[in-house]
């Protein structure tokens, strides 16, 4: 059995080696490293896949969120609601723009933003909601969008972990995660479901006017060469990364299917386990399993993590500390215990390896190793 990795980028490259080498060498030969034809082609292909009119590529997922908020012309002090159980970048850009992050708890089953907690957090200063489609499954967007419409709020989807997932509305309409708010944002970090081989990100929208502002903001605020319509940033997806992303986009549904197959084996192995809760599958969303995250109860999560390491099984805790307990985001409005679901999840979750390159014997070894801890 090969060594198990949380993400096996070497195996992924080997699987696509011929196509990747050809694409990269083609960019090198053209010397069109910035704004080359692959950038435009990838943007169009991703727009068709997500089901949006505009994809604006940028340098990374954090920039995507920042550019989105800059293009919406938020002002210092405006409140933006985000879940406290998420990666820091969601709140980071809010703070950098001198906006006010308003933190809310998550649903204890899906790990996504709790709609009742969200509604309770809305004030006259609230301007936007940032649902994070965590671990590969969409937040419950129908009630969230209805709530946003009632209060005249923007919805900016953080879709860094759920690209490819479908959300089904009560009327049966289906949309991809990232295509439901006024803006969707994503990351192409190498560990993502749709990865590049460095940093990369993108912004989605159906709004033509907003798309122009997003493009300007990402390109120093330029509306044409050396004419600057607004304050912007310098955030580009380079041509090499776009060429790599075109290949991975063509394989994305295949990658998702393999992740789902591995998740199904984990589910079957751990179903009904007295100490483990498998990921909840929301009835309104497909799950693309950016992470496969168990909850541990009646046992020591950290001892399980150490046991797995002894058996050459990597694991991760996403996330060990919620935002309201992070030094950079402590706020007198919040105290320990205010977000019980998030705090409990931080103490109990553990993510197992899940990626398209996991072999069957590796999956079985992971399952045996987890089960042996409780024997």
Mean pLDDT: 97
User: What amount of the residues lies in strands?
Assistant: 5-15%
Which outline best applies?
A: globular
Question: Ranges with pLDDT <50 over ≥5 residues?
Answer: none
Per DSSP E runs of 2 or more residues, the count of β-strands stands at: 14
Task: Write the H/E string, N to C.
Answer: HHHEHEHEHEHEEEEEHEEHHEEHHEH
Structure explained in plain terms:
The protein is globular, with a radius of gyration of 21 Å. The longest helix is centred in the last third of the chain and has 19 residues, at 252-270. The protein is an alpha/beta fold and 375 residues long. It is built from 13 helices and 14 strands. The chain has a 7-stranded mixed sheet with strand order 1-9-8-5-4-2-3, with helices on both faces.
Provide a compact summary of the structure.
With 375 residues, the chain is of the alpha/beta class. The protein has helices spanning 9-15, 17-30, 37-50, 61-71, 89-96, 115-121, 141-151, 208-218, 239-250, 252-270, 301-310, 340-348, 360-373, and strands at 54-58, 79-83, 100-104, 126-129, 154-158, 166-168, 174-176, 183-187, 201-205, 222-224, 227-228, 276-277, 292-296, 349-352.
